Amino acid sequence: MGEPRSRTKKFWRWLKKPLLLGIPIGIVLVVIGLVGFQGVMVASNMNAFCFSCHLKMDTIVQEYKASPHYVSDDKVLATCADCHVPHEFIDKMKVKIAATADIYHMMKGTITKENFEEHRPRLARIVWEDMKASDSGTCRHCHSGENFDLSKQPQRARLNHEMIEQRGETCIDCHAGIAHKRITIE
Q1: What is the pTM of this model?
Q2: Structurally, how many domains does the chain consist of?
Q3: Is residue 161 part of an annotated ligand binding site?
Q4: Does residue 34 belong to any structural domain of this protein?
Q5: How buried is 169 (Cβ within 10 angstroms: 0-12 exposed, 13-18 middle, 19+ buried)?
Q6: Which residue of 44, 46, 51, 160 is 20 to 30 Å from 81, comparing CA positions?
Q7: Tens of pLDDT along 12-57?
Q8: Any known ligand binding at 69?
Q9: Do residues 29 and 35 lie in contact, with contact meaning Cβ atoms separated by under 8 Å?
C-alpha cells in the first residue's frame, strides 16, 4: 500500500523541479515578448518608419512637411501616427493589422511611385471614412481642452466649431486636406 503513495510523492517532487525552473523562464520569455511587442509598436509609430515607404510616394511626405501639423508657431509636431493611428489599444491593433495590406501591395508592386496618384483617391477615402467613423478621434486626442480653446479662435471658426455636432459633422468634414492636399474622392 505504501508503494503507490511513495511513487506519487516521488513523481510530484520530480515534477516540482522543472516547474520551479519553468516559472521564472516563462516570466522572462513573457517580459521579452512584451518588451519586443512594445518596441515594434513604438518604432512603427515613428515618422521615420512611415517615411521609409511613403517617401517613395513623394507627395505625401512633402505635403505633410509643408503642413501646420509639421511646422507650427508652437513648435508642436504632430507625427504621422498622431493622425493615422488611434490611441486606444484595440483600435490601434486594427489599424496596424490593416496597414499590412499597404505593405503587401507596395512589396507586390501593385502600388508604386509611378501609379500612386491613381490609387490615392481610393486610399484617401478609406482614411477619411475611418476618421469620420471615429468622430475624428485622433484629431480630438490633441485638439481638446486647452489645446482647443474656442475663445482664441477667429469668430467664423469658433461659430463653425460650436455648430459641428448639430450639423452631424466631425473634424475631417472641414479639415480634410490639412496635412495632405485635398483631393477629389471617387
Answers
A1: 0.71
A2: 1
A3: no
A4: no
A5: middle
A6: 160
A7: 777 677 666 677 777 888 888 877 888 888 888 998 888 887 766 6
A8: no
A9: no
